[in-house]
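Blackboard transcription, Thursday session:
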Amino acid sequence: MKPVISIEQLSFTYAGSERPALSGINVTVNPGEFIGITGPAGAGKSTLVLCLNGIIPHFQRGEYQGRVWIDGLDTVDTHCTEISRKVGSVFQDPEAQIVASTVEDEIAFGLENFGMEPEMIEARITDALQRIGIEGLRYRSTVELSGGQKQRVAIAAAVALRPKILVLDEPTSELDPLGTKEVFEVLKQLNQEYGLTIIVVEQKINILLEYIERLWVMNEGRMVADQPPRQIINQPELLTGVGLQIPPVSELVYRLKAAGYYSGELPLTVDEAYWALLKCRGGKG
Ligand SMILES: Nc1ncnc2c1ncn2[C@@H]1O[C@H](COP(=O)(O)OP(=O)(O)O)[C@@H](O)[C@H]1O
Ligand SMILES: [Mg+2]
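(Written on the board underneath:)
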């Protein structure tokens, strides 16, 4: 399969900064992957996202080395508009990225910028709202929406442009647990039903591990792990080593395992932990 993203020896140092924000990143992404990025503050997660949507190197000064190919195009030689047709972006703060006063206008905004015909825009709006499952919000005023609704509108606006890749930088950091779940449910559906390639930066490790198929752990500008959630959770030091916590259910069973009450894989979910704990009964306790 031809990778949809290919990153080769990517390093970036912001102008005026001593230390590189990214160092020697090498990674490829196949179409339809659902990837999570986590890591402590300052790890380089946002910088990596900016390299994917072309803001680096086009709008950010600094020293750039290596190559990023998006759908076969080298981002250095590709106009940002062209990159934005392939990579949709959603950011942290729902307030900052919503520009229009109604949901419908918000979704139309990007399409109009692409110079699309009005009938086509109409069809795309209907389709995007349907894909995200927010048809009921179409005529609502954007200021009245909840945080979770705003982020789903931002995702709908990105999806309306029919990108191959959707990158989201901490889209749930301003949201409560319900809003967070709403966003991840939408991402899961877009990934499964439409094969959209998704890369999401997220600090809430529990929810990330529940939804994604591949996790990138970053620290000090480097990619320190690139594995499926189950493999990561069974090597807890990959997360604890960079100052991150493993999910409480995994931690509990990890401790029981270390104390000799359990042998087997560490659980990712409450359901799995339940079965792991039942198995513990025959243990030394
Ligand atoms: N605009 C900028 N100018 C200078 N340094 C920056 C800028 N943005 C981020 N950095 C630095 O780059 C490093 C990585 O930052 P960032 O990619 O934002 O990390 P993360 O998203 O993982 O918290 C940090 O050391 C940060 O201070
Ligand atoms: Mg960040």
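Lecturer's comment: The beta strands are 5-14, 22-29, 34-38, 62-70, 73-74, 87-90, 165-169, 197-201, 214-219, 222-227.
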